[in-house]
Design goal:
The complex is a heterodimer of chains A (115) and B (110).
Chain A: E1 5-7, E2 10-13, E3 19-24, E4 31-38, E5 42-50, E6 53-56, E7 65-71, E8 74-79, E9 88-95, E10 105-106, E11 110-114
Parallel strand pairs in A: 2-11
Antiparallel strand pairs in A: 1-3, 3-8, 4-5, 4-9, 5-6, 7-8, 9-10, 9-11
Chain B: E1 5-7, E2 10-14, E3 19-24, E4 31-37, E5 44-49, E6 55-58, E7 61-65, E8 71-76, E9 85-92, E10 98-100, E11 104-109
Parallel strand pairs in B: 2-11
Antiparallel strand pairs in B: 1-3, 3-8, 4-5, 4-9, 6-7, 7-8, 9-10, 9-11
The chains are: A mainly beta (115), B mainly beta (110).
Chain lengths: 115, 110
């Protein structure tokens, strides 16, 4: 398996623009997670899906952020409008189940820079 | 809010030295994991500990889960340059969500 695939790997955009990050989870994994990593706050869970349904979006910073999972093999994280403080590395991860001892498989991340 | 505090935040040592990284919380976790992250990549799972007091070894790495399941440690014996990276602990709450520590940036110089 190719692992979790994310695109783009790098994104540079200007403040106010819309940004869309994409993720393809590992086939057969029922859970998909979106994380944000910064030096100040570390790795934070933004939202996760189970069987394409959003289960917990309590980590989404504000209404400018939205995430969708239209099918089992694709998810997007959208920021509209983007702000400089959104600059971070965004990771997508997938897992076959959620519970004690579950392993999350992370993608390579998208480094977002908002100027 | 469950929090995990890792220490030290940064560690720079010479090849061959031993080191210990700590992960502490005031909360109880159902399990605790250690991940390693290299520059430009996502974290990769090293180990999961589930039982209080559990010790697991992975070659030169020894992981321990505290008796009360609130803390954990990672000990590396005879560190090598290939051990360089960001080490993250992550606790699973009852719902299974992972709470990550801030990470320990390890640099092992030859």
């Amino acid at each position: 398996d190719a692992g979790v695939i994310q695109s783009p790997r790098h994104e540079v955009t200007e403040m106010g623009q819309e940004v869309t990050l994409r993720c393809k989870p590992i086939s057969g994994h029922d859970y998909l997670f979106w994380y944000r990593q910064t030096m100040m706050r570390g790795l934070e869970l933004l939202i996760y899906f189970n069987n394409n349904v959003p289960i917990d979006d309590s980590g989404m910073p504000e209404d400018r952020f939205s995430a969708k999972m239209p099918n089992a093999s694709f998810s997007t994280l959208k920021i509209q409008p983007s702000e400089p403080r959104d600059s971070a590395v965004y990771f997508c991860a997938s897992s076959p189940f959620l519970g004690q001892g579950h392993e999350q498989y992370f993608g390579p991340g998208t480094r977002l820079t908002v100027t | 809010t469950q929090l995990l505090e890792q220490s030290p935040q940064f560690l720079s040592i010479q090849e061959g030295e031993n080191l210990t990284v700590y992960c502490n919380s005031s909360s109880v976790f159902s399990s605790l994991q250690w991940y390693r992250q290299e520059p430009g990549e996502g974290p990769v799972l090293l180990v999961t500990v589930v039982t209080g007091g559990e010790v697991k070894k992975l070659k030169r790495l020894t992981f321990q889960f505290g008796d009360a399941r609130k803390d954990s440690s990672l000990h590396i014996t005879a560190a090598q340059p290939g051990d360089t990276g960001l080490y993250l602990c992550a606790g699973a709450n009852q719902g299974g969500k992972l709470i990550f520590g801030q990470g320990t940036e390890l640099s092992v110089k030859p």
